[in-house]
Amino acid sequence: MKCECMNQQSDLTLLKPVLEQYASVKGSLITILQHAQEIYGYLPMDVIYHIAEQTGSTPARVLGTATFYTQFRFQPVGKYLIMLCDGTACHVNGSTRIAAAIQEYLGVENGGTTEDGLFSFSIVACLGCCSLSPVMMINEDTYGSLTPAKALDILKEIQEKEAAK
Amino acid sequence: MSIRIAVGQGSCGIAAGAQKICSALEPLFCQSDITIDTVGCIGMCWLEPIVDIYENEALKCRLVQVKASDAERIAEAVKSGDMAAVADLMITPEDNSFLEKQTRIALRNCGIINPDSLESAKAAGGYSAIGRILSAENGMTPEEVIECIKVSGLAGRGGAGFPTWFKWNAARQSPGEEKYLICNADEGDPGAFMDRAVIESDPHTLIEGMLIGAYAIGAQEAIVYVRAEYPLAIRRLEHAIAEAREAGLIGKNIMGSDFSCEFRIKAGAGAFVCGEETALIESLQGQRGMPRLKPPFPAAAGYWYKPSNINNVETYANVAWIINNGGEAFAAMGTEDSKGTKVFALTGKIKRGGLVEIPMGKTLREVIFDIGGGIREDKAFKAVQMGGPSGGCIPEALLDTVIDYKKLAATGAIMGSGGMVVMDESTCMVSMAKFFLDFTAKESCGKCVHCRIGTKRLQEILTRIVSGEGKEGDIELLEELCLAVRDGALCGLGQTAPNPVLSTLRYFRDEFEAHIRDKKCPAHSCTDLLHYKIQPESCKGCTLCSKKCPVSAISGTVKNPHTIDQNVCIRCGQCIATCKFGAITVE
């Protein structure tokens, strides 16, 4: 019996150039996984199997390495990934209230994705912008000195921009 | 006369809107020979966005908290030379004292030079130290370089404070031709951001420091392991490496000498334990980042089991300065045990948060009150957290502690990488201890039982205490577990994980007792222990609070005092924020 997760059909040819460059370079597994996540948005199970096969490793080792690091995701994420910092400075300055506001507004838990696939929400460790605390990153943009209201305004702005498209 | 307008564009400046200011300024100067320049972070983060005006490379004026809408009047002021029109944007002498009280070595070029320009770095003295070391006439041998670092007394700035020369010497002495030099830029300590600032603002200083280290230990390859969460730092470092390679400063026969060294960046994938050097090496090798048993130390068997040296970003950022100015000049600063300067990331409930570089030997009070300006909203200082999840909280009574590796360790905190998170009276120390244990329990790699399960049990006990279910004996149990985890863990993460609990127990034991015995949170922060009450004599019966309450816990009729049903109340605090009469109190 084959596992359900293997029914996924990712386009593995997209990964070919990455594997050509790194598959035979020792110690490159994390780099390959990072590229794979950039291509697919997350790490689908068939991609994990494919990487294991192409690098002469086992799926268990590849998956074991991937799950060790917080960067890797095993579910598709929304178009906008909200990373709310819960480092010490942000925590002291009220990141918990902002988390509650965002979760309520989007109707998702930590790690969840909205039904329309627009937002994923994740509470993360220190983003290193402590002087702007509380801080969140949406994709690669950083937003600082947040209040619950300000955070929601930023999300609403994105929603409006997307609705206008 | 040359005029340069420098817009601070570190991650923090950009988040505050620096790019919009640049885009607004650029079209206003396209017809002139005045240049708009990108610089990194000056470290005065509370004043971002910052625009500096230089005349003939001398700072003429610094404009702070600038908005894109200010661009036109800035342009007019710069063109006319009369800065009076932007007087309201100029930094106040008081704010400026934040910088004047500092001594900058690691941060010497941050916020001044263009991080994307090798030329700009060279004009500030970049690559002069490696140039001197490699020069044919009066160059330095690797041994002389190590001796100079030894004289300087430079110690690892990542946390442990191990003498840098000793590590370099051990790696140099290790037999073998193939050696590696690694930079730990996996700045994972919550509350520290100096490494990000150095890479974003002055990447060539890091490269030069690493080249000198590689020359000293005899490495042919240098690797920077940097957090993936720092995309801007990675981009600027990639650019800097490419420019340096183009200019013959990286690669074969650097500056025409026999010394060759390759550079590459490896993006970390998010694991706090990878700040531990052997875990970092495992991660570099593409594996789970789990620490190795030491010895052998990396100097003997590191990356691919070859001799390797690992230092932190800030450590390398000091190296070129030491070579140029001599080890004695560096050692002249600081205390007997701790030499030179240290960068601190000052954040939390502080008025002026940012990067502070000061000679060792100053007191915590000087940093927090003289430089940082004290506590926001003039609330009472409660504690400063140093060293992140491996460190501890220092109370007010110890604010005159001198900054020095040994003196700080004696308080139960550590120097760590230099994160200083200031807390005021509204911060609950039990909840802080829980916050750090949540962190370490999550980040424990799982290799040793003491760390994997011990931190989990500590976290559970603390969770129970903050939710009002603490039991008699919990404090003693915490203490016992802390000592077991400290003694039983393999690596620094586990050994130091109990520190936040031990130090808060040491100085704030009464807060733990209040949570357990009286079911009260003295800081009014733990929501499970709070009781919101409406004072009938102050309540006018305006009904605003009952309309605002998300769970309809407030009842009452118009013009009559309202009451809160404690069984329904979720302690969100919205009623207090709504009440115009100050009739609602918290206990």
Task: Specify the number of helices of chain A.
Answer: 7
Uncertain stretches of chain B: none
Relevant CATH superfamily of the largest domain in chain A? Glutaredoxin
- Oligomeric form: heterodimer
Question: Largest sheet of chain A at a glance?
Answer: 4 strands, mixed
Total of helices of chain B: 23
Give the CATH level 1 class of the largest domain in chain A: Alpha Beta
Describe the structure.
The complex is a heterodimer of chains A (165) and B (587). With 165 residues, chain A is an alpha+beta fold. Chain A is 44% helix and 11% strand. Chain A has a four-stranded mixed sheet, with helices on one face. In chain A, helix 3 (45-54) packs across helix 4 (59-68) and helix 6 runs parallel beside helix 7 (148-164). Chain A starts with 15 loop residues before the first helix and ends with a helix. The model of chain A has no long low-confidence stretch (mean pLDDT 91). Chain B is of the alpha/beta class and 587 residues long. Chain B folds into five domains: 3-96, Glutaredoxin (3-Layer(aba) Sandwich); 118-330, Rossmann fold (3-Layer(aba) Sandwich); 341-424, Ubiquitin-like (UB roll); 429-518, de novo design (two linked rop proteins) (Up-down Bundle), CATH 1.20.1440; 531-586, Alpha-Beta Plaits, CATH 3.30.70.20. Chain B contains 23 helices and 17 strands. In chain B, strands 10-9-13-11-12 form a five-stranded mixed sheet. Chain B has a four-stranded mixed sheet with strand order 2-1-3-4, with helices on one face. The termini of chain B are far apart. The model of chain B has no long low-confidence stretch (mean pLDDT 95). At the A-B interface, helix 2, helix 4, helix 5 and strand 4 of A face helix 1, strand 9, strand 13 and helix 17 of B.
Topology record:
The complex is a heterodimer of chains A (165) and B (587).
Chain A: H1 16-22, H2 29-40, H3 45-54, H4 59-68, E1 80-85, H5 88-92, H6 95-106, E2 119-124, E3 136-138, E4 141-143, H7 148-164
Parallel strand pairs in A: 1-2
Antiparallel strand pairs in A: 1-3, 3-4
Helix pairs in contact in A: 3-4, 6-7
Chain B: E1 3-8, H1 11-15, H2 18-25, E2 35-39, E3 51-55, E4 58-63, H3 71-80, H4 93-100, H5 118-123, H6 128-134, H7 142-152, H8 164-173, E5 180-185, H9 194-201, H10 203-217, E6 221-226, H11 231-246, E7 262-267, H12 277-284, E8 308-312, H13 313-325, H14 327-331, E9 341-348, E10 354-359, H15 364-371, E11 381-386, E12 392-395, H16 405-410, E13 419-424, H17 429-443, H18 449-466, H19 474-488, H20 492-496, H21 499-518, E14 532-534, H22 544-548, E15 554-555, E16 563-564, H23 574-578, E17 584-586
Helix pairs in contact in B: 6-13, 7-8, 7-10, 9-10, 9-11, 10-13, 17-18, 17-21, 18-19, 19-21
